[in-house]
Design brief:
The two termini are 26 Å apart. With 507 residues, this protein is mainly alpha-helical. Helix content is 66%, strand content 3%.
Length: 507
């Protein structure tokens, strides 16, 4: 039975009707018809209770599918190359993913409770029009990530084609671009199938990805003389000797930044969760452990290659080709390509597709938004973004984490502190409702966003113009930049709270 809970309208403001799922006040459903609103389309509409079918397993499988990917496998490489030991790299990765899990679960709450996506949730704090600012900032980062993961997938396909069919290399350097195009087209085909296709892809691929990682680790331990021996060899992976505590701040921020984008748009997925318990437990089980475990597999297997082949082979694709067994190549190709697909489809398509759709709901559907993402992912030249591992970590990851932190600070402060988890759901789709502010824009939120980002810009510019992204003689602003996500997250939240202090917050 659904118990109807009616919201009392304030003067001149008609609030919508909502229902709660049984006795659970943390899962509600909008019952009013808002299809006539220019801010509404079927993809952005709040999910109904019948659409909320994602269990704890589905949420955990989502994170396993997104975490098991080549960039996670090689994540520790940049840290160890700069001087960290294997266990220092693992602690940093685990801590970073535990930290980012907190805003992840907090932002996920609104998605599960109200069935809204990230750009719709942004309307409560930034205004029904102002929400396009954080949505597009998030979308552009996702486009960059989509391009990077597509490029890696294309390179993987190219390498595996050459291993399985040596004549492939006879076509020259064009093969990598052919592989890139093929992998891109495969993803476009998945995009047009919508979100349900992504759910199915993540659900069946999770066991395959975990099995592939476990088999690779077992092979490394057996051929490398045991886990203890191969980890002892890991010291040879350190090509620099920067003190740990000098590396740690930026490395931790980079690992937080790795999923800082998802910590914002996680409502895009949890709007389909069955309950708050499902989303929170699923994320806790699926994110920190999988990220750390797969990064550990990367370190252990790479260390084993020193023993087995006499050199460190960080790239799992090159390793699979080096092993040479046709069966291994075929299975390895399947695991690697599925890993790239699951990560890209979930992490880098769903959010920008919704974000672009929110710009013009009547003209841009989820599928159209996904296709825009695919095109921009190429335009951003991902082969250059991923070319330098150190710059990738200390410039790309840390740099965009500052933007994501600033947006996250506003969202969490607005929803958890000011509104105390109460939203007027229907007004998120009204041009003249509670979230219209001034011409649809809450300038206080935008001011908080800008103020929070300003202090880290000098450090970013210096890192971006320094080879490798690591400044040799860091000053105060450089140090501040290494904590970019933490600085902008706290600062935007505090500034927004102060600016909104005089406002009457009623949801």
């Amino acid at each position: 039975m659904l118990a109807v809970r009616r919201w009392r309208p304030s003067a001149g403001d008609e609030s919508p009707r909502m229902t709660t799922a049984g006795s659970d006040p943390e899962v509600v459903e909008l019952t009013d018809d808002l299809s006539g609103s220019p801010l509404w389309n079927p993809d952005l509409a709040p999910t109904t209770l019948s659409q909320r079918t994602w269990s704890t397993y589905h949420i955990a499988a989502l994170w396993i599918g997104m975490s098991v990917v080549i960039t996670t496998y090689t994540l520790a490489s940049g840290l160890m190359q700069q001087g960290m030991t294997w266990w220092q790299a693992m602690v940093t990765i685990l801590l970073g993913n535990t930290v980012v899990l907190i805003p992840m679960v907090l932002n996920a709450h609104a998605g599960t409770k109200y069935g809204v996506s990230f750009p719709v949730l942004c309307r409560a704090s930034f205004g029904v029009r102002g929400a396009n600012v954080p949505a597009i900032l998030r979308a552009l980062v996702a486009c960059g990530w989509f391009g990077i993961q597509t490029w890696i997938g294309g390179v993987a396909l190219d390498t595996l084609m050459a291993a399985a069919w040596p004549a492939w290399r006879g076509f020259g350097g064009i093969t990598v671009w052919i592989s890139f195009a093929v992998f891109w087209l495969v993803q476009v085909a998945i995009i047009v199938r919508g979100l349900e296709g992504i759910k199915k892809l993540e659900s069946w691929s999770a066991p395959l990805l975990l099995s592939g990682g476990a088999l690779l680790l077992m092979w490394a331990a057996q051929r490398g003389g045991g886990l203890g021996r191969i980890l002892a060899e890991s010291s040879r992976l350190q090509t620099a000797h920067v003190p740990f505590w000098q590396l740690f701040p930026a490395a931790l921020t980079a690992n937080v930044g790795y999923w800082a984008t998802l910590s914002l748009n996680i409502p895009d997925f949890t709007r389909y969760a069955q309950s708050q318990r499902s989303q929170a437990l699923g994320q806790a089980l699926g994110l920190p452990a999988t990220m750390t475990a797969f990064a550990f597999i990367g370190v252990a297997v790479t260390s084993a290659t020193i023993v087995i082949f006499g050199e460190a082979i960080w790239d799992p694709i090159a390793l699979i080709a080096r092993i040479g067994n046709p069966l291994v190549i075929v299975f390895g190709a399947l695991v690697v390509l599925v890993a790239q697909l699951t990560t890209n489809m979930a992490a880098n398509v769903v959010s920008p597709a919704n974000d672009f759709s929110s710009l013009s709901p009547r003209r841009i559907s989820y599928v159209t938004g996904g296709l825009i993402t695919a095109v921009l992912g190429i335009v951003m030249m991902p082969w250059k973004l991923y070319a330098d591992a150190a710059a990738y970590i200390f410039t790309w990851l840390v740099g965009y984490s500052s933007l994501m932190g600033a947006i996250g600070g506003v969202l969490i402060t607005d929803y958890w502190i000011l509104r105390r988890r109460q939203l007027a759901l229907g007004d998120l789709f009204k041009m003249s409702g509670r979230y219209s502010y001034s011409n649809g824009v809450n300038r206080r939120a935008l001011v908080a966003l800008v103020v929070a980002v300003l202090p880290v810009i000098p450090g970013f510019l210096r890192a971006a113009t320094t080879p490798g992204g690591i400044v040799s003689d860091p000053g105060f602003l450089d140090t501040l930049y290494t904590y970019a996500w933490f600085v902008t997250f706290v600062l935007s939240g505090v500034v927004y709270l102060l600016l909104m202090r005089g406002e009457r917050q009623r949801g």
